[in-house]
Amino acid sequence: MVGSCRSCDSCADHLENYCPKMILTYGSMNFDGTMTYGGYSDIMVADEHFIVRIPDNLPLDGAAPLLCAGITTYSPLRHFGLDKPVISTSPKKKAEALERLHADSFLVSTDANEMQAAMGTMDGIIDTVSALHPLPPLIGLLKAHGKLVMVGAPEKPLELPAFSLIMGRKIVAGSAIGYEGDTRDD
Predict the structure, then answer these.
(1) In which element (H, E) is residue 174 found?
(2) What is the pLDDT of residues 89-117, one digit of tens each?
(3) What is the pTM of this model?
(4) How far apart are CA 35 and CA 26, in angstroms?
(5) Strands (E), 14-170
(6) Sign of CA dihedral 131, 132, 135, 141
C-alpha cells in the first residue's frame, strides 16, 4: 500500500491496511486523482510512512517475496498464532514446502486418505486460494477452536456451512496485507 487517510480509527491504531481510504500499490486512485500501477510503473511516489527499507545485506531478489505475498501470509500467522502446515493439490510442491518454506507438515488435498487422516488435527489454516473452492474439507481439518483465515479472494462467494463451525467453535476470519509493524515485526 502507498497511502491511507491517516485520520480514521484504523489509522490511529497503526492499522492503515484496514483504512477505508487505503491506497493500494496497484489499481487504486491516488489522492491527486492518478491511478497506481504497482510493478507496472516506471516510477512511483509514496508517503514515506509506507516505505519499507531493505537492509543493504539483503539482496533485492531475496526481499521481494517478503513483501506483498510474504507479509500477507505472515500477518495472519503472527496475529492468529497459527502453525505452518501446507495443503496443496500437487504432491510436487512437498519438497519446496518442507525444505524451503519450513512448513510444519504437508498435505495433498486431492488425496482422500491423507485428508481423512488429517481430519480434526489442525489449529489453523491460511487459505490463499483465489479460485472458487469448497470450504467444508478445510473446516473439517480444524480442531475444535480452530481458525480458517482467508487471504485469497475468489471472484464468486464461497459456501460456508454454519453447522460445521458451530459444532467445534471454529472461526472463519479474513486478513488483508500486513501492516507496517508486521514488516518490522514490532
Answers:
(1) strand 171-174
(2) 999 999 999 998 888 889 999 999 999 99
(3) 0.81
(4) 8
(5) 26-29, 35-37, 85-88, 105-108, 122-127, 142-150
(6) negative
